[in-house]
Every structure is written in structure tokens, then in C-alpha cells.
Design brief:
Layout lengths: L2 E8 L8 E7 L6 H11 L3 E8 L2 E7 L4 E2 L3 H13 L9 E5 L2 E7 L5 E6 L4 E2 L6 H5 L5 E4 L3 E5 L3 H6 L4 H7 L3 E7 L8 E7 L4 E4 L6 H12 L4 E5 L5 E8 L2 E6 L1 E9 L2
Parallel strand pairs: 2-3, 4-6, 11-12, 13-15
Antiparallel strand pairs: 1-2, 1-18, 3-4, 4-5, 6-7, 7-8, 8-17, 9-10, 10-11, 12-13, 13-14, 15-16, 16-17
């Protein structure tokens, strides 16, 4: 029987911006091998699989090569698909059970999706061996959380010009590397970031919701207020509003469906 399949551009108000995610809504949880094969076929940074579970939904995310513990843009895309396809009343929160616990999404009056995610604060640590060579520059600050390295650079122009060695990033381990800097004066964002994860099958992710679970507490502590707006400076680019709250973090952004079809395999 054919399976519905959607492609959604998350953290974008227009098609072909933000971060594309495939979303596959199902009647029940499928086999992991099948999900990995579908994600490899889609060849996007993440494909999300969602099915009814109790009073909410089960949710798993796969890159083309591995299953991941947390993905923001594909969660936003999944909630968007549930609401726009009529599988869930837009007035109701989308509640997901995932490998990172319970996640909740709400549709705001301005059309943005607000996601309630676990906060993942980074802790300062010694730079891993060879980091300067990997980056091609000297970092201002280095830390990590349970998933990723976090590296702050001196300026937004330095971050935008960054061309790290993908082989070098892969050798650093963890899920990937977040690189960030304070936003330029007068910009429409407070901080910028980029995310590299060749070790997870994603050389550079266009917009990474889960990375903002680390960026939110990091920059709120330094800038001193919330909410803040982050811009992920990939080729596609996208804005993410962040607000730490009660040991969690709220992430806000738009989504737009660009493709709808049927999976025949």
C-alpha cells in the first residue's frame, strides 16, 4: 500500500529556503532498517517518521546514514504535516515521544511553530587536538555537550568565510560541530551559527534546530536577555528564535510544504 510522503522546508517562510526535511506519517512504527533505507533514498539531512502512540505520536529521525537522538527542523516539519494534512487539529499541540523524551509543538497565531525542547548547555573544555588546523583559524571559545562540539569565533564575517576540513571535523567525533559568533551590529539577528556533521552523513546542515538547544543558553548568558534570534548562515539560511525557559528551550520558526507524494516501496 502506498505511504504518504512530504517534503517541508523548515525555518523558512518560502519554498527553497531553510532546511528541507522529509516526513513520513504512518499507522504504526516500522522497522528501523526500512526507515534507514527511506532516509537514504530521500538523501536529505533528516527524514522523520511519525505514527500514533497513546495520546500523541512516536517520532524517529534518520540522516542518510544513521539514526539521530534529536532533530529540530524535522520535528517542526512533522508537526506542520500533521496539522496541514488534517491528521491533527491545528488548535491542539503535537506531542511526540522520541529518543530525547517528550517534545511538544504548538502553532502560534503568527503562523510560526513553537517547539518545547530539552536544553543542551555546553561546558567549556580543552580544544580537541588539531582543531585550529580543522577550522583554519583560532577559536575564541571551545566547549561541548552530550552531542556536539561548540566553537565560538571572533566575528560573523569570520564565521561566514569558514571552510573547515570535513575529514578533520569527522575525526573530532561526537555528532557534529556547531560554530557560532555574535551577530554584526544592526543585523536582524543576535548571533550566527553553522553546523557541520560529516560523521553523521551531513557535511553542512542548512538550519539545525537541535544545535540551538546549545546556542540558546550559551548566548542568553552572554547577551543577557531573551528571546534571541539566531541566523544559521548556510547557503539556504534560516532564522530560529530561542528562549530558555524552566530548564527547557523554546524554538520558534516557520515551515512550508514543497512536495507531497506517495512512497511505493
Amino acid at each position: 500500500m502506498p505511504t504518504s510522503l512530504y517534503q517541508v522546508d523548515a525555518f523558512s517562510t518560502r519554498p527553497f529556503g531553510g532546511n528541507p526535511a522529509a516526513v513520513c506519517p504512518l499507522a504504526e512504527e516500522p522497522q528501523a532498517g526500512w526507515m534507514q533505507s527511506v532516509a537514504a533514498e530521500m538523501n536529505l539531512s533528516e527524514t522523520a517518521f511519525v505514527w500514533p502512540r497513546g495520546e500523541g505520536f512516536g517520532l524517529r529521525w534518520f540522516t542518510p546514514t544513521v539514526e539521530v537522538d534529536l532533530c529540530g527542523h524535522a520535528t517542526l516539519a512533522s508537526a506542520h504535516v500533521l496539522w496541514t494534512s488534517g491528521r491533527l487539529d491545528p488548535r491542539r499541540a503535537a506531542r511526540f515521544d522520541s529518543r530525547s523524551g517528550r517534545l511538544e509543538c504548538r502553532l502560534l497565531e503568527d503562523g510560526r511553530v513553537e517547539m518545547d525542547f530539552p536544553v543542551e548547555p555546553p561546558e567549556a573544555c580543552a580544544a580537541p587536538d588539531g582543531l585550529e588546523q580543522v577550522l583554519g583559524c583560532t577559536p575564541h571559545w571551545v566547549g561541548r555537550n552530550r552531542m556536539d562540539w561548540l566553537v565560538e569565533l571572533e566575528s560573523e564575517p569570520m564565521l561566514r568565510a569558514l571552510a573547515p576540513s570535513m575529514d578533520g571535523v569527522e575525526r573530532l567525533g561526537l555528532r557534529g560541530m556547531i560554530v557560532t559568533a555574535r551577530g554584526d551590529a544592526g543585523a536582524d539577528h543576535d548571533f550566527v551559527s553553522r553546523f557541520f556533521a560529516p560523521q553523521s552523513g551531513v557535511p553542512e546542515d542548512p538550519v539545525t534546530g537541535s544545535a540551538h538547544c546549545a546556542l540558546a543558553p550559551y548566548w542568553v548568558e552572554r547577551i543577557g536577555h531573551a528571546p534571541l534570534t539566531g541566523f544559521q548562515a548556510s547557503r539556504r539560511g534560516g532564522l530560529v528564535e530561542v528562549e530558555p525557559r524552566d530548564g527547557r528551550v523554546l524554538l520558534r520558526g516557520h515551515a512550508v510544504t514543497v512536495l507531497q507524494g506517495e512512497l511505493l516501496a
